[in-house]
TrEMBL record:
This is DNA methylase. One of its GO terms (molecular function) is hydrolase activity. One of its GO terms (biological process) is methylation. Its cofactor is Fe(2+).
């Protein structure tokens, strides 16, 4: 039934950016295995932000890994990348082989339950270059992910399944915001791997 087949290269944004959803790219068993490995072996830390001089600590946890000990500065805080683990290298290769893009770093997010999310933002840091290519690879609970056009305010929603891959590229960060909305419906944790390329 061709009508129902997913076209992985279809752009889910109507204009001014490019977002591809590849759907599920690993088996549920493999996804469960990697979820567990990352949960226990990644150096998770609560995220911090300094906004108008006030220090905030999130419930969500994060971690930053890369080819080199890159500094990542955002929300007035800086993190230094840790060396890849074998699990991260396996997942990086899977994401690279599936998407045809290469990455040199990864910001991981751990949302313990639906009450934890990420507010509207774009990943427009200078160190990511003009047209950053950023993945969101999901392990664990399925969550809604939303885009909002910065001018027209048009929104696009997608559900990120366990073991699925989404790629943002082109002018997406320039023209669209994205967020992971909090929800009462989800009680299970989700890990996302946002592979990126730091341009030195
Ligand atoms: O959790 C996700 O899928 C995306 C998180 C995100 O937008 C980010 O880390 O910049
Ligand atoms: Fe983001």
């Amino acid at each position: 039934m061709e009508l129902f087949e997913r076209n992985p290269l279809q752009n889910i944004l109507p204009e001014d950016g490019q977002v591809s959803y590849y759907g599920v790219i690993m088996s549920p068993d493999q996804a469960a295995y990697y979820f567990d490995q990352l949960l226990h072996h990644i150096e998770w830390k609560h995220d911090e932000a300094v906004i108008y001089g006030k220090h905030y600590i999130t419930k969500r946890k994060v971690a930053w890994y890369g080819d080199e000990p890159y500094d990542y500065s955002y929300s007035n805080t800086t993190k230094q990348a840790l060396p890849w683990t074998s699990e991260l290298l396996f997942l990086k290769k899977l994401v690279e082989d599936t998407s045809g893009h290469t990455f040199n770093s990864c910001l991981l997010n751990l949302y313990h339950e639906g009450s934890e999310g990420m507010a509207w933002h774009s990943d427009g840091e200078k160190m990511l270059g003009n047209q950053p290519i950023i993945s969101s690879f999901t392990l664990g609970a399925e969550r809604k992910f939303s885009f909002k056009h910065k001018q027209s305010k048009q929104t696009v929603n997608i559900h990120l399944e366990n073991g699925s891959l989404l790629i943002m590229k082109g002018d997406t960060q320039r023209n669209w915001l994205h967020r992971l909305p909090p929800t009462k419906k989800v009680t299970k944790p989700r890990i996302s791997l946002t592979f990126r390329t730091i341009i030195s």
